[in-house]
Description:
Layout: H1 29-41, H2 45-58, H3 63-79, H4 83-97, H5 104-120, H6 124-140, H7 144-160, H8 164-178, H9 186-203, H10 206-224, H11 229-244, H12 248-265, H13 271-286, H14 290-311
Helix pairs in contact: 1-2, 1-3, 2-3, 3-4, 3-5, 4-5, 5-6, 5-7, 6-7, 7-8, 7-9, 8-9, 9-10, 10-11, 11-12, 11-13, 12-13, 13-14
Amino acid sequence: MNAKSHKRTGILSTVFVIAAYPMFAQIEPAQRLTNAFALEMEGKPASATVELQELLNSGSLDALGSGKAWNILGLAHEEMGEFARSEHAYEESLRILKDLPDNLRDYAMALDGFGGLYVAIGQFEAADKLRTKALGIYEQLADHAGIARAACDLATIAFSQNKVNSGSKYLARAAKEAKVAIDLDDDDHAAITSLLGWQAQLDGDLPTSVSRYRLALDLWRRRHGEEHPFTGWGHLLLGDAQFEAGQLANALEEIKKGVAILDRTVGPQNPHYLIAELAYARILDATGSHAEAARVKAIAESLLKNAYRNQCAGCTISAAAFH
């Protein structure tokens, strides 16, 4: 999740203030799409999926709008751990956008987002193919922001497989492109910064890792406030780095904050929350609370296993990854 935030960038993010009003149904489809994306940005993917599905069912969007809506829907379902539904949504987005040659950037965004789903379910080869394809499109368009995001996401795939050299090259590319990009936001900079923390952690430079993760957390908190999944995950990443650096008291405090925020924002059944619980169990065990650590770990592992088995039952390798 630490590099996941920039998938949201590129679609206008307008604050959602209209849903409670009786004239909502009369709002233009494009504005409703913007509002639905704002809901997803605010860490409310369940509300976003309801609005997006209603919008798609209405048939009021043009082809480009439909492709974008399916893309956002794929991201929202992924955030909720509904992987099969996410896969279907991304498939629909790519099916529509590939036939719109004047909108290659939106197609690249969908490819990159779809790659994020495959990272989440551990299918790194497919994820790499999709995101490499997205990078090529951004390069074709000379889109520096897109190149930075795609390179950042490819670094995530590499680091996830402990391919430090490959990941470091992609990360260096992302940082270079970020210097000349004009439309990156705090989410993008937080993603790059957190990856620099991961790189330092893999290299054994633990003080730098802690410093980078703290800066990434500050960026997420500045953009989203404290009560947001990205901020909760930022606390978790910082706590994990502190744990590796032997700062157990600080690590316990940060991880407890992260778990609490994820509990309130994504819920206790979400895979991200359950992964956070496993990190919490590890720090509990290290600080001497062995029985409580074993209890938390057993529950989280069981729920996480069931979540992936149930949600990934219909997941396949998309043909989009190989063409």
